[in-house]
Amino acid sequence: MKLHTLGAVSLALTLAACGTDDAADSSAAGADPTGGTNAPAGGEATPTGDAATAQGGASGGATVDAGPSEAPDAAPPPAGVLGRCDYVNTFSRADECKAYTGAAWTAETAAQDCQAPMPGARGTFVAGGTCGFDAELGRCEIGDPAQKGYLLVMSGDDAGSCAQARVACETFAGGTFAGSPICADTPAPPPPEGPRVFTPPHLDCRDPLPGEPPGTGPDGKVCTWTAISACTEPGRRYEDYASCDDVITQRPYYPVAPRTTSKPDDPRVQDAAFMGELAWVTEQVAACACVCCHTDRAAKNGASDWNIEAGPIWTDTVSDLGLAILAGFADSRSFGAFPPDQNFGFSRDQTGLPTTDVARMTAFLTAEWNRRGFTEADIEGLPAFGGPLAAQAEYVPQACARGEGVDAEGMVRWVGGRARYVYVLEGGADNPGVPPNLDLPEGTMWRLDVPPDGEPLNTGIPYGVTPEGVAQRFPVEGAPEALVSGQTYYLYVLLDVGLPVTRCLFQAP
Questions:
Q1: Dist. CA 155–CA 139, nearest whole Å
Q2: Is residue 422 pLDDT above 90, yes or no?
Q3: Which end of the chain, N or C, is less surrounded by CB atoms within 10 Å?
C-alpha cells in the first residue's frame, strides 16, 4: 500500500525529527530515510522511482473509468502512457493524479496500484487517460521509463507550495520536477545539511547554562542523548544540551517555509486556556530534537515545514497529514524511540510528538484535529507511517540468489556495494530498524558496525572475526554462536542506517 503524494514524502521525512515493489530483490525501497548517506531513492541505494510511495493506503479497490477528464490545456502526455489514477488527497483535499508511463506497467498492475493511492482515498483508474489540471503546481517524472516509471501531477495555484513540491520530487523521490508557470522560478533544492554518514546516538553531558538549575546527571550535569528521538530535561532547550549537527545526520534536513501561518486576530489568541496549553506543548517540543529541524533558532537555514517559533499559534504551520502523525493517529514507531526512563520521562510510543504527559498531549492535538473538521472516521484505516522505514520493517526476505550468505570457507559475502553494518540473524528474526530500540532485533547472532569516520567494509569477511577499526556490536563479548549446517539464516547488510544493500535468507553449508 502506497501514498503517492509528493508533499507527504517531504513531510514524512521532515517529520522524522519527531515522529517517509520495484526494488531489487535484496534492496531497500528507500529515499535516504535517515539522512545517512543521502543516496537517491530506490533499492540498493540506486534510483528506482518508488521512494515517493512513502506510505500505505486505504482499503477498497480502485474504480475504473474509460473516459478522459484531462484539462483542456493540459501538457502533452508522455509517449506510451498506459493510464492514470485520479484521487483526492484526503488531507489537502486537492486533486492529484498519477500517470503510469513506464513500459513495465500493465493495465492490471496499474489498476491494482490505484486501489489505495493514499490513506482514506480510493483512486479511479482511467485506461489510456493522462493527467492534467487547470491549475498545477508541477509534474514530477520518477523512475525508469523502461520499468515502472510514472508521472505525478499536483494540482494547486499556491506559489508558496512550490519549493516543497520541488524538494519532494527531486530530493526525496529522485525525480525530475517541471514546474507550472507559477512554480517556474522555484530554485533547485539546496544540498543536504550535515555529514553524509549516520552518527549513532551518544550521550552528551554538559554543565547547565548560567541561571539554570543543576542537572540530574553526575556532578549536576545535564546528560542528553544526541539522537533524533531524544529529549533533554523538561524546561530546557534541546539544542543547548546536544548537537543538532549530529542529529541531522540521522534524518535529511531542508529549509521549507510553512504553507500556512496563523493570524494575530485569531480568536484563539484571546483564549487563555488554549494559549496556556499551547505554551505547554511548545515547551515539550523545545526540549526534544524536533527543534533541530523545526525552529529557526536551531536549524541552520530555517525551519523545515513547521515551526514552533511561528506565532501566534505555531500549530497552524503543521499540515493536516502532519497533525495526524504528531497526534499518533498514524503509527510512526518505525522512527524509533527511547524508553521514557532513559529520555527524562518523554515517550513517543502513543503520540508522534514526544511528551511527558500522553493524555494531555493527545487531548490538545485531538482538539486541533477536530477543529479542522476531521473526525474519528478520518483516522480509521490510517496505516503505519514511516515511509521507507515502515516498508523495511515489513519486508519479507527471500532466498539469496547471487552468492550471498556465509560460504563453505566461512566468509560472509554480499552484493550491492560496501557496507557500514553487517548482520547475521536467525532465519525468523525481524528486520533491523533504526536506533535506539529497533536496530538489534531478537535473533541477532552477529553484528558489525563501522564507525562514522571509518572505511566501509567490502564483501568477503570471515564470520565471527572483527576487522580492524570495526566494532562488534553483538555479541557484546566473545565469538558469535556457530552456524549450524543446513539451517536457514538471514543476512542483512546496510550501506548505512536505513539503506540496506543485501537482505536475504541462506542455508549454512
A1: 9
A2: yes
A3: C
**Measured between alpha carbons, how far is 43 from 25 in angstroms, rounded to an integer?**
9
Segments in 79-146 forming alpha helices (H):
107-113
Look up cell 539544542; give the residue. Answer: 239
- The contacts of residue 452 (CB under 8 Å, 6+ apart) are 195, 197, 198, 199, 200, 249
Mean pLDDT of 468-483: 97
C-alpha cell at 283: 515547551
Per residue in 374-385, pLDDT tens?
Answer: 998 888 877 777
Helix (H) or strand (E) holding 156: none
Segment 342-347 shows an average pLDDT of 97
3-class SS of residue 278: helix
Q: Is residue 216 classed exposed, middle or buried when 0-12, 13-18 and 19+ CB atoms within 10 A define those classes?
A: exposed
Q: Which of 17, 318, 332, 39 is nearest to 173 (CA)?
A: 39
Q: Over the stretch 228-259, which tens digit does the pLDDT of each residue have?
A: 999 999 999 999 999 999 999 998 777 877 77
DSSP one-letter string for 293-348: HH-TTTSTT--BS--TTSSS-GGGGS-HHHHHHHTTSS--GGG----GGGTTT-B-
CA 233, 238, 243: angle at the middle one, nearest 5? 125
Q: d(Cα 503, Cα 321) in Å, to the nearest integer?
A: 32
Q: Which helix (H) or strand (E) holds 91?
A: none
Which tens digit of pLDDT belongs to each residue from 259-296?
788 889 999 999 999 999 999 999 999 999 999 999 99
Whats the size of the chain, residue-wise?
509
Alpha carbons within 13 angstroms on the beta-carbon side of residue 23 total 30
Tracing cell 530498524 back to the chain, one arrives at 433
Cell of 417: 556495494
504/213 Cα distance (integer angstroms) = 52
Give which of 182, 282, 183, 193 is closest to 238, Cα–Cα.
Answer: 282
- CB contact at 8 A, 6 and 154: yes
